[in-house]
Structures are given as C-alpha cells and as structure tokens.
Amino acid sequence: MKRHYPSGATKRKTKGEAKLKTESLRKLTSFFKSVTTPDPNVLVEEEVPPAPAVDPTGGGEELNPSCLCTDDNSKDEENAVEDAVSRPTAAVSDSDHPEESDALGDDPGLWPTVVNDRERCELVKRGPVQQQSEFPKNAKGRRFTTANYHMQMKNGERISRTWLVYSKAKDAAKCFCCQLFGKGDTQLSSTNGFNHWNNLQVHLKQHERSAAHVKNMGAWHTLNARLQSGSAIDQEAQNLMTAEVIRCREVMKRLLAIVCHLAQYNLAFRGHREKLFEHGNGNFLGQVQLMAKFDPVMKEHLWKMKAKQIADTYLSKRIQNELICLVAQCTTDALVERVRRAKYYAVIMDCTPDVSHNEQLSVLLRIVNCELTKGVSIHEHFMGFLVADDTTGQGLLQLFLGHLERLGLDLSNCRGQSYDNGSNMQGKTQGVQARMLELNPKALCVPCGSHTLNLVVGDAAKSSTISLGYFGTLQRLYTLFSGSVQRWTILQEHVKAFSVKALSTTRWECRVDAVKAVRYQLPEIVDALTAVHKHATLKKDPECASTADSLKENMMKWSFMISTDVHIPDPDA
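Predicted structure:
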C-alpha cells in the first residue's frame, strides 16, 4: 500500500534544512543593528555594562539560555529599562485611600492592569514568588503543578523558569517579566492569564522562545541589576522612597502599639473631636500627642503634618478602624492556631440581646493545652459575637457552622457542646445539640451546670409564698431608697457596712448581696425606714410614708426574721 505520510528520514531531513536556514538568517542579522529615535524627554546616562544573567530570587540557579539577550534586541531592552526608571518615582500613597494603596501582594492576578514605575521597581526588588501550595482542579480534572516551574532538557538537566508564577485568584499561570514590561499582548501577560493546563507545556516553550519574552527578560534583569547596584537613573528618588517607606513603617509600629494598649484596657478610641491638639479629641489622638513629646519619629511625623509636607497622616477614623480590625484578625488567627494545635475542642454558645435590640450569639471554644514547660491546662477562648437573625435551632446551627468554616476549623474535631436550657438549644429533636449530634455523634452535649442549678433554685423559690413575699420585700426596700436622693442619704446615715441591692432575675447568687445588707443591719435599716417615714410626713408625701411604714412592719414580723436568719436575743435573759 502507498504511504500517505512522510517517512522519518524525510522529516529529519526537512527539520535539518529548516535549522540551517534559521542559522543562516541569524548570521545575516548580526551585521545589522536596530536604530531607534531617542526620546528628548528621557535623560540619557552613560553606557552600563550588561548584568550577568542571575536568578533575581537569589536562588543561584542558572537561567534558561533562551531567555538571554541577543544583539538584535539589546538596545530595545536598554531603552525599555531607561524608560522604566528615568521618570520620577511617585510619592508613597496614603493608606487613608485604600483604592490608591501601594500594597502589592504576591499574587499577580491581584496586581493592577497598568503597573506604574514605582510599583514595577517594588516588584522587581521583591522578585517573583512561585506558589508551592495545592492547586485546584478544573472541570476536566487538570491543574497546575510545581513541575512547570522547571524545563526538562534532553540531557536530563532541569532549568528553572524563574519568570513563571501562578495566580491563585485567577487560577492561571502568568509571566512575571511580561506582565511588568510587556503590553499584555500574550496570554501569559493578559489579565486572566493562561489556564489551559492540557496545553501548558507547549505554550510555555513557545512563550519563552518568543522575541517579546526575550526582550522583557532582558529589561527585567537589567532593571534588577541597576536597582541592586544603585546605578539607576532615578537612584536619588529611589533612596528617598526607601527612606519614606522606613519612616512610615516606624510610624505604623507606634500606632499599632497605641491600638493594642487601648484595646487591652478597654478604652474608647475617639472623642468629640477628630483633630490633633483639640480638646476632647479622644484617647487615640491624645496618646499620639503624648508620644510626640518624647519620641523623635512621631515628633517628625506631626511636624510634617503641620508643615503640610505629607498628605498621609494615618490618623483618620478609617485608619483607626482598619488597625483595630487588623489587630483583631491577628488575635483571632493566633487563637485559631492554638485550637488547631490542640486539635480537639468543645463549643459553648449563648444568645443575648444587645443595646441595639439585636440577638447576639456568643461563641467560645474550650481546649486542653499540653505544653512541656507549663504542663496540661484548660483554656476558653472567645471567638466573637454573631448576629442571629434566626433564633431557631436550625438557624443558630447554620450560623455557627458558617463561622467555623471562616475560622478554618473542622466540626469533626468537636468533642463537646454546652448551652443553656432553652428549647432552641437543648431541644431533643430540633435543638442545636440534636442537629449537631446528627453531623458529629462524638460532640456530646453537657448542659450548663450553673444555669441548671439557677433554674432549679429559682423555680423552687417561686413555689413558696413565704419566699415570694420575702424577696418582694427586699426589692421594694431597694426601690424605696433608690427612688430619691434624700431617701438614699438617710439610708447612708444609718447603714455603714452594706448597702441595699436590687434583685437579679437571671443570677440567683446575686441575691446574696441583697440579703446580706438586711442580715447584718436589720436594726439600722428599721431606723432608716422610721426616718424616711418622718421625712415623707413633713414633705406631705403620703405614698412614700405608707410604703416606709408597711416595709417596717413586714421586716419586724417573725417570719421575715426567721427567713433572714437574724439572731434574736432571749427575752428572759
């Protein structure tokens, strides 16, 4: 049968002819140099010798030989670098404006579409960061792997692709140098990057051999060498920018220390004014003013603010809130890391309404911490308030599970749960504990012992009419004296040790303080009621006089004295 495709020998012959033709073209182009029209707006400096091809990340690995500069594009690369560093560097942006923040992360997918000179220099100094974590799979089951960071040669040698980076936000591969120095005309330098993983190796080989990539690689290494050697055209501006960055960092360290101090002592941050050197401007600005009297860094910062040399003060209310959130996030991360080290934990939750009439779910995690130096200890960590719009068992469980997912903790490691005796929490079919046991049978529920005891004692006291009358008298006693300044003054004149207290409706042990005032000072309180009765009679206040006389009679009864356990002397003694 006649063959319909060329043989292997024919293919090798065609490939050899194409290679010879390419080599002859390279020899021909070596006799010519590209001519570019100089830009009058760009300053020209002396010739800088080409920098050695080194790994900008400091790894010491050799670069891909195909990425080295050739004679036909070296001039274009030098012009590109001069254009990148010749323009004056922008000032440090104010963090009061988050949309103009100069914080550039390691993810290339989050970098701005158009990178300015200052951001380009900052990224080149930092170098590319190649992610090593797990990479998600796409719909076809394919994903990016760390093997793509190296190119396998035919002789078995592996050459590092230092220019290749992975964007977790875009789930795509990107070219570091082409994104910084290119025009976005390739897929690896576009906004979305390249994520066709089945054709990635072929596309990487084509990209690293393209003329645009070779040009951008040369521009990258030349700029990196100039920044490291301090021979850039705008080196003075670079030095000023570095000094400004150091100054801002020192200022932020002091502001964070003030935030931690105020948070530790539970003090308010802001007052009635929001400007420096004004009365009532709050604790935050007040401590900034105090620190500026003794600290040269803060003193210089405030002096520049007064002289209007800087527009970024880092003292606005938005920055204060942002610093509070950052400190809170760091604290939460530290607590979560401690829970992860302990692995197993128990959860304690309770709902309480706040002053804005919103139901808040408080979440606490209880762990057993084992350390070699401190031994075994038990810790309870508060993990935040959650606004509960749905207070049913299903709603509270979903709210807790969502919070647990945000913290990065696994429900399967939960070994205990404890709540109050509400039906939405302790319900055997629809409560939170029952629904959580369906998801994790090992999370045994233990009702709160203090809450259970409080309910038992409270219900037992309500079953006795004597008990109801006794505590009703104590509450009426507090209401009478606290209802007027004059009556409270009379009470203080007669009672020196313990003052009368109001009854608590939720905590039974708080009633001990109310009973203690009567237990040890019954005669003095009776005298105070007599004085209040006389005072109300003179003021022609019959209601107050009647209440004082009624309370005096109740407190002189035998049943009240027995309930109070007052020592009564023997009449015959």
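Summary: The first helix runs from residue 8 to 29.
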